[in-house]
Description:
The chain is mainly alpha-helical. It folds into 3 domains: 62 residues, N-terminal domain of TfIIb, CATH 2.20.25; 94 residues, Cyclin A, domain 1 (Orthogonal Bundle), CATH 1.10.472.10; 127 residues, Orthogonal Bundle (Cyclin A, domain 1), CATH 1.10.472.10. It has 13 helices and 3 strands. It has a 3-stranded antiparallel sheet, with no helix packed on it. A hairpin with a 5-residue loop joins strand 2 and strand 3. Helix 5 runs antiparallel to helix 6 and helix 10 runs antiparallel to helix 12. The radius of gyration is 29 Å and the shape is extended. This is Transcription initiation factor IIB.
Amino acid sequence: MVYTESEHRVCPKCGSTNLERDEKHGELVCRDCGTVVDYLIDYGPEWRAFNADQRAQRERTGAPISERHPHKLGDTIIDDRDTRGRRLVDWRFRRLKRWDRWISNDPVSRNIRSAVELIERVCSQANIPRSIVDEAIRIYRKAVEKDLVRGRSIENTAAAALFMACKKRKHPRTIKEIAKLFGITPKDINRTHRVLLRHLNERMPAPDPKQYLSRFATELGVSEDVEMLAREILEKAEKKGLTVSRNPAGLAGAALYLAGLLKAKEYIEEYREKMKEAESEEEKEKLERELNEKLRTCRRTQPEVAKISGVTEVTIRNRYKELAEELGLEVPDPTKIDVPA
């Protein structure tokens, strides 16, 4: 059952917002007084299928419309066989196919086809989802319709469209990563990106540094505890307005670096107490090995974090100091925490 209207409903009888979906009966019910506020609408099929063959037989619709479909690209598919599978050899049919090839080979269609091939190839190399590919193609076609491609290279416009699609679909990719994929400079993408934003009227969500955390943490090889602490730091920073007008990738890298320092400090203090209670040298050596193993999963240097985040070491240093100062965190001196080899 899918409820299609706004989630912020109130009971017309008692004014309560404590509503519950009754999926079994298809009703939206007030939990305080029991009033049926509305009925849920099921947009699914009215039939059931227990295997792939039954589903294929009972389906009455085809695949969803894709931005990569030939009809969307301005092409027409003309088969050279009739309904019985016999090859058509009539000269009028050959002339029709030739005219269609000439008509569909106009500059606009060629431009869109080249951009689609380029976007698909780049996204395939970078493992970018197909939904973002479709969104990027849609934005590029919209730019062509608005005549924004004239005077700009296909690479610049396609890269800007892909960057906008990643932002819109909340798939974190930095502008430097996109520029590297297309073999152009970030300055070129920025210039075209501003033009598209100004003329296409596309609504872009506010950048969220937390979207970069999982990927950066995986590439840096830090533990889940460090990632969770970095997420908490960014959530507190967002409440204080520290993320406004800041590079989200730089903030995510700084939060991971800061979380690594705090976790390293916590582990060192914890194992220092355990070593005091240790009775033998073997036990102390074992505790020291455990400490070194934990430090390897949390502590990373500024150059390592800067390289993954796509920013400079100065940005990481300034951002993590700013976060620590504004949030009142006591950060140890990084030079006094040795990272085991």
